[in-house]
Amino acid sequence: MTDFFKNIAPIKYEGQDSTNALAYRHYDKNEMVLGKRMEDHIRPAIAYWHSFAWEGGDPFGGRTFDRPWFDKGMEGAKIKADVAFELFDLLDAPFFCFHDADIAPEGDSLAESSKNVRTIAEIFARKMETSRTRLLWGTANMFSNRRFMSGASTNPDPDVFAYAAGQVQTAMQVTHELGGANYVLWGGREGYETLLNTRIGQEMDQMGRFLTLVVEHAEKIGFKGQILIEPKPQEPTKHQYDFDVATVYGFLKKYGLEKHVKCNIEVGHAFLANHSFEHELALAASLGILGSVDANRNDLQSGWDTDQFPNSVPEMTLAFYQILKAGGLGSGGFNFDAKLRRQSIDPADLLHGHIGGLDVLARSLKAAVALIEDGTYDRVVEDRYADWNAPEAQAMLNGERTLAQIAARVEKENINPQPRSGQQEYLENLINRFV
Q: Exposure winner among 35, 173, 273, 327, fewest CB in 10 A?
């Protein structure tokens, strides 16, 4: 045990009337919701990077956090692992997620870096013997080191491609050995800054080949978890090849990977792509590539991905509606890809952020369930499209009519359709009744 969270007791569910700031007021992991435990709907995970590796800097100032593991190499990484599992246990968290570079410092070679990662992974394995926290997903950081300034798999230098492959091999193997439910490819720099020095087609082919290699390797080592891509637009690269769900699906289709790879969708990235979170979820579900999600929010006055803890029940209710209608997240979950504000320097702030986020998700889940069980919203949408169930409409949709036949019927029957209200204001008011 460390003394980082000294004098803080494990976080418990105390109900809505509790005034204890270090207690869950809405998140009761064992509450049954639609025949399933609340925890099993949400599958919350703690992000190793933001919680333990982020230093509190911003573009105009450096470190504000004072953590006992900073700047201490492998010894610091071991302290960090101790503190991480203490936080997992305090929050009673079922899952965590990590990048390789977050859990262990990079060495002077790929071999040394891999050895460092494996050393900490062995510590994780021992801790998981006495902790209930499991691994939701692992990934490799292929964006922070300067070698990746022009991308990883999309780099013009084939040696960078090869180095990235070696890094993923270790990260995936460790994820597999720790029982990870998913493996994520987060393409922070898989894009370009200017067309003046870029071959888009070649870089896309490189990225497609890299992802194919990952899928093949997962099968070779017996990894049964999902392979996920995290859509990410224009940050920090100006033009990202994995801009949003639609772009990712087009990429997967081109390289024949749509049956092998799904999406890990983040709230902040959806906003940066000028979409809503529920849009990305609904689209991914309709395309069969909804895998997992990152729970956070952006500052709507900022054009940057600020990674704040979720605090909007209406926003998350619409997200849960889409997830529930899609049948849930399966082996995915809600990863808290959220970091403290740089002025929130106390250890307890880590607890407050996750407690608040989990309470928001719990309230949103129950609101979405109430919306579905009421049925009014679904009926309004069904009624809007009801005419497509008619035999002639189905014939058009199923390819049983030519364009000329359709046009002839309009003329023969003198069809002159009139607009119908979309009832947006009514639906907005209806949703607000549940949140």
A: 35
- Residue 99 is a catalytic residue: yes
Q: Which residue ranges does the chain devote to CATH 3.20.20.150?
A: 32-374
307 is in an annotated binding site: yes
Catalytic residue among 92, 100, 102, 242: 102
For the record, the structure tokens of 4 come out as: 């980082």
Helix (H, G, I), strand (E, B) or coil at 364: helix
What are the C-alpha distances in Å from 114 to residues 111, 145, 179?
A: 5, 15, 18
Q: Which of 99, 176, 275, 354 is catalytic?
A: 99
State yes or no: 266 annotated in a binding site.
Answer: yes
Q: What share of the chain is helix, strand, coil (3-state, %, to 5)?
A: 50, 10, 40
CA atoms of 251 and 242, how far apart (whole Å): 8
Q: What DSSP letter does each residue of 130-161 carry, written as one string?
A: T---EEEEEE---SSSGGGTT-STT-SSHHHH
Distance between CA 77 and CA 349 in Å, rounded?
Answer: 21
Q: Is residue 408's pLDDT more than 90? A: yes
Kindly give the pairing relationship between strand 32-33 and strand 36-37.
Answer: antiparallel
Is 28 known as a binding-site position? no
pTM of the model: 0.96
- 372 pLDDT higher than 90: yes
Kind of pairing between the strands at 95-99 and 44-47: parallel
387 is in an annotated binding site: no
Averaged pLDDT, 418-427 = 97
How many C-beta atoms surround the C-beta of residue 195 within 10 A? 9
For domain 32-374, say whether CATH 3.40.50.150 is its number. no
234 has pLDDT over 90: no
Concerning whether 50 is annotated as a catalytic residue, the answer is no
Token couple for 315: 């926003």
- CA-angle at 124, arms to 119 and 128, nearest 5°: 150
Q: What CA–CA distance (Å, rounded) separates 234 from 188?
A: 9
393 to 293, 295, 402, 408, 422: CA distances (angstroms): 36, 40, 13, 14, 20
pLDDT tens-digit map of 295-349: 999 988 887 789 999 999 999 999 999 999 999 999 999 999 999 999 999 999 9
- Mean pLDDT, the chain, whole residue set: 97
In this predicted structure, what is the pLDDT of residue 283? Answer: 98
305 is in an annotated binding site: yes
